[in-house]
Amino acid sequence: DELISQIAAGEVVERPASVVRELVDNALDAGATEVVVKLMAGGVRSILVEDDGVGIPADELPLALRRHATSKIASLGELESVATMGFRGEALAAISSVAELSIASRTEGAPHAQRIDARSGELVPAARGRGTSVEVRELFFSTPARRKFLKTDATELAHCLEAVRRHALARPDVGFAVWHEGKLVEQWRRSSLDQRVREVLGEDFVAESREVQFEIGPLRVVGRAGTPAAARSRADQQYVYVNGRYVRDKLIAHGVRSAYEDVLHGGRQPAYVLFLEIAPDRVDVNVHPTKIEVRFRDSREVHQAMRRAVEAGLAPPQA
Ligand code: ADP
Ligand code: MG
């Protein structure tokens, strides 16, 4: 069973950034309004994610660590319309099979917090306000072969920051802070989408992009798309979200790309941040454990919507 968990973990946990993504997903699912990420040695030594969400009742703490235990989905039918980030109940189990993991959590009205250590299963009283702190230490400590594939701390930190950035763009209503080695390295306060995009992607991105706001049938696309005249190529600033979930999708990328076809030359890559909203039953998010891939019921409809949304955004305003 240990081996099976470790193999499953391989699909979910590739590097510290994968842990950060899953823990922040959980914090957001718990209704957090502030999420704090504290890293040591690029997250390889330790990752601590603290939230002010609803918390986990003490008697459910052991369950949270169990494989296929999720509090978020009650039936297979619900899989069709998942609104939460997590729903497979795999992340914590997978992480705890390749690292040391502990959770301290407190629900509203509980006399104090409780901490559980994944390895021993032991529960002890802890001190914190309402919400949850998950600490992950010594990633891949028992699988040196995997640990060998990790890059320098600076590179792993960059990946962790990118993971938080992806969440931050989708959730301007939530405050995020990232600490590394005791220093605050990034902070985004709760604000509007406009302001969040400005802070995360920069003033120059905003100056060199146009607003996208498009609706067709059951699909809605909002966000910002870089203008063809943008000063530099920005392949690293292409963000796409489907129902609030960050995805990498060839079909969507192609749809966006085709909007630039006649105006963008020389292999330049535009920056964009686009949010596709689509009826949940028209998209399957349960394709891959990392949930980064999706499958659409009608791919042509999505491709066209993305292309037309960006085209409309880039078109000069009508006189
Ligand atoms: P999933 O998110 O797919 O349900 P996870 O393994 O990520 O699976 O988490 C297992 C369970 O632990 C969740 O369903 C939730 O009940 C609980 N949980 C994990 N993190 C938090 C958190 N930060 N706040 C509240 N509950 C949490
Ligand atoms: Mg989860």
Automatic annotation (TrEMBL):
One of its GO terms (molecular function) is endonuclease activity. It comes from the Bacteria. Residues 197-315 form the DNA mismatch repair protein S5 domain. Keywords: DNA damage, DNA repair, Endonuclease, Hydrolase, Nuclease. Belongs to the DNA mismatch repair MutL/HexB family. This protein is involved in the repair of mismatches in DNA. It is required for dam-dependent methyl-directed DNA mismatch repair. May act as a 'molecular matchmaker', a protein that promotes the formation of a stable complex between two or more DNA-binding proteins in an ATP-dependent manner without itself being part of a final effector complex. This is DNA mismatch repair protein MutL. The chain holds residues 18 to 336 of 603 of the full protein.
